[in-house]
Write a structure and sequence with these properties.
The complex is a heterodimer.
Chain A: E1 8-13, H1 21-34, E2 39-43, E3 56-57, E4 62-71, H2 81-85, E5 91-94, E6 97-100, H3 110-114, E7 120-136, E8 144-151, H4 158-168, E9 174-178, H5 185-191, E10 196-201, H6 205-221, E11 225-232, H7 239-246, E12 250-255, H8 258-265, H9 275-289
Parallel strand pairs in A: 1-9, 1-10, 2-8, 2-9, 10-11, 11-12
Antiparallel strand pairs in A: 3-7, 4-7, 5-6, 7-8
Helix pairs in contact in A: 1-9, 4-5
Chain B: E1 2-7, H1 15-28, E2 33-37, H2 45-48, E3 52-59, E4 63-67, H3 77-81, E5 87-92, E6 95-100, H4 110-114, E7 120-124, E8 128-135, E9 138-145, H5 152-166, E10 174-178, H6 185-191, E11 196-201, H7 205-220, E12 225-229, H8 236-248, E13 253-256, H9 261-271, H10 286-302
Parallel strand pairs in B: 1-10, 1-11, 2-9, 2-10, 11-12, 12-13
Antiparallel strand pairs in B: 3-8, 4-7, 5-6, 8-9
Helix pairs in contact in B: 5-6
The chains are: A alpha/beta, B alpha/beta.
Chain lengths: 295, 304
């Protein structure tokens, strides 16, 4: 955190779903904000956004729009140049008419460039929404802003909603990004350009398999990784030995406790109620405030 | 053939556990079974079912832009038309060149349309691989998406096509799909044109919120939905909210599975080649008994 004008961005991610990303992201953001930092928590899991369940936020959702090819039917000669230029198969010529399939259109503008008579233009369409506001509640959350992206049901433009959410977050001292599971374009849109990748995993063969994918993704993107072991003590796989072999630090262990699961189930902040979880989150917060340097 | 997809919206609710259990129980009921793991970003069903004899073929289709610096005139036309911020100038030695960021390039080719010297061209890239193998319960098909690729939906479709080719076309054949988390592109590809969707949820605020989004998607796609409440005893209030939700939405609740460490360790056991314990085989923890009852309920809604 050397540059005071730049947000220090921490992405909480995992290959496997349901390992505890949201638990870590929400509790970490609160711990950092209560420690006097100006923090924004950005929910980038726009297909299944859950951070807003933990906070009350007065937020006005704003629509996320993407460009969409639009034919001027009066001008169009159905020559097919736009169809040939479209890499996504989103344009077809049927019955002498040019048809655009919105769900396939990437809004790249190639068809507009290819049309010889300027009959192909653009409109825009809604793919999701982004809400942004200060997090308030019964407890004091400090200087905490929540930005939440939500993909419209039935739409496929998750990366566009993620980029809109990250851009709506603006500049803060620390940004905590709650990333989606997996390693696809949506995961990359969420963790690209982050300063630090916090990977939450569990000690099962599945946790290890998917952690390895996530660590490789971090390496390819040039973002350093650190691991938080959730449900420690529940499985048979030695995640810590694997991490030691890879040179990835394990920052904290959140024990496998029914109490933690019960507390999370009711959308309460686990670190406020379970001492073992509070210690783990504190250790991660320390690591983040040191700019990701091992003490 | 009937196709059932196990999905959840929220990750980590127990999709793979249920898919693996259904596969074992269906085989015990003398059904022909083919399984497909459509979570091509993190395929876990091959681990859960101990897949062997796996062969994979490259899955391509997409392309990416590349700029030849020897003929690039550094005019910047490509960067101006790129909607994805994938092209920009960078310093190489003491000259400036335009480079494509492969992580950001969506392969649209707009840059090739405006480049005056044809320095920007498209080249094919591999998006991942589609794999098939065998397991104790029958053939398995799954995919491995290369990190950062945006063709997860197309790879899911490829996995489903291959699984369908392997499935005997008899009424009795059951294709079990382990779906990806979320409700986006790969989920749409995994559940479109299936006969039934089993939504696995948990009594958490997140579980309910994400199940609701999945149900709305399934209804848009006209796929019948039922639900399974996993880790049901974690929150009495949360479980009650899920039951009320299912009732209000006319979603059959196939059953509830208690928080059960034995069920979790059984998943590890299946990976090592053990089967799912059948009725009367002993070993009956509450979770295992519940899953078996859920399979019986599921058969009624899936049919075949």
């Amino acid at each position: 955190m050397s540059d005071p004008n730049k947000t220090f961005t921490v992405a909480v991610a995992s290959g496997k779903g349901g390992t505890g990303k949201t638990l870590v992201a929400a509790n970490l953001a609160v711990a950092l904000a209560r420690g006097g930092r100006d923090v924004v928590l950005v929910d980038c899991d726009v297909e299944a956004p859950n951070d807003h369940l933990f906070f009350q936020v007065e937020a006005q959702p704003r629509a996320v729009m993407v460009p969409l090819a639009q034919v001027d039917e009066d001008e169009c000669t159905a020559c097919g140049a736009c169809r040939d230029a479209c890499a996504y198969g989103a344009i077809r010529i049927l019955g002498g008419r040019t048809l655009v399939f919105p769900e396939l259109c990437h809004g790249c503008g190639a068809c507009t460039l290819a049309c010889p008579i300027s009959a192909m233009g653009e409109t825009s369409r809604r793919v999701g929404e982004v809400s942004s506001g200060r997090a308030v509640g019964v407890a004091d959350f400090g200087e905490l802003t929540l930005v939440s992206g939500s993909l419209d049901v039935g739409d496929v433009k998750a990366p566009d909603v993620i980029r809109a959410a990250r851009s709506a977050a603006g500049t803060h001292e620390i940004a905590v990004l709650d990333a989606p599971p997996g390693v696809s374009c949506a995961a990359v849109a969420s963790v690209n350009d982050a300063d630090l990748l916090l990977l939450v995993t569990e000690p099962t063969p599945f946790g290890l398999h998917d952690l390895e994918l996530a660590v490789r993704l971090g390496q390819e993107l040039g973002v350093p990784s650190a691991v938080i072991l959730n449900r420690a003590g529940s499985g048979t796989v030695d995640i810590e030995a694997w991490c030691a072999g890879e040179g990835v630090p394990v920052l904290a262990r959140i024990p496998f406790m029914r109490e933690i699961a019960e507390c999370y189930a009711d959308a309460r902040l686990v670190a406020d109620e379970v001492a073992e979880c509070a210690q783990a989150i504190e250790a991660v917060a320390d690591f983040v405030t040191r700019g990701g340097a091992v003490a | 053939m009937k196709t059932v997809v196990i999905a959840s919206g929220k990750g980590g609710t127990g999709k793979t556990t249920l898919a693996a259990a259904f596969a074992h129980l269906a085989v015990a009921d003398q059904r022909e079974v083919v399984v497909a793991d459509c979570d091509v970003e993190a395929a876990n069903l091959p681990i859960a079912l101990g897949a062997s004899g796996v062969t994979c073929v490259a899955f391509g289709g997409a392309s990416e832009a590349v700029i030849d610096p020897s003929i690039c005139t550094v005019c910047g036309a490509c960067a101006n038309v790129c909607r994805f911020g994938a092209i920009g100038p960078s310093v190489s030695g003491n000259s400036v060149v335009y480079r494509v960021d492969p992580w950001a390039c969506e392969g649209c080719g707009a840059c090739t349309l405006v480049c005056p010297t044809d320095a920007a061209t498209m080249r094919p890239k591999q998006a991942g691989e589609a794999c098939s193998g065998s397991t104790k319960i029958g053939p398995i098909v799954y995919g491995n998406l290369r990190p950062g690729e945006d063709l997860s939906g197309k790879l899911v479709t490829e996995v489903r096509e291959r699984a369908k080719d392997l499935a005997e076309e008899t009424d009795d054949t059951l294709l079990i799909i382990d779906g990806p988390p979320g409700i986006g592109c790969p989920v749409i590809a995994a559940i479109t044109n299936t006969d039934h969707l089993v939504g696995v949820t948990e009594p958490t605020a997140s579980g309910l919120h994400d199940l609701d989004r999945l149900v709305r998607l399934a209804r848009k796609l006209d796929v019948p939905v039922s639900a399974v409440l996993n880790k049901a005893d974690l929150s009495a209030g949360g479980a009650e909210r899920l039951r009320t939700y299912c009732q209000s939405q006319d979603i059959p609740l196939l059953g509830e599975v208690p928080f059960d460490a034995e069920l979790a360790s059984l998943l590890g056991g299946m990976a090592e080649g053990r089967g799912f314990p059948l009725r009367g085989e002993g070993d009956d923890s509450p979770g295992i008994a519940a899953v078996r009852n859920i399979w019986e309920q599921a058969q009624a809604v899936i049919g075949g």
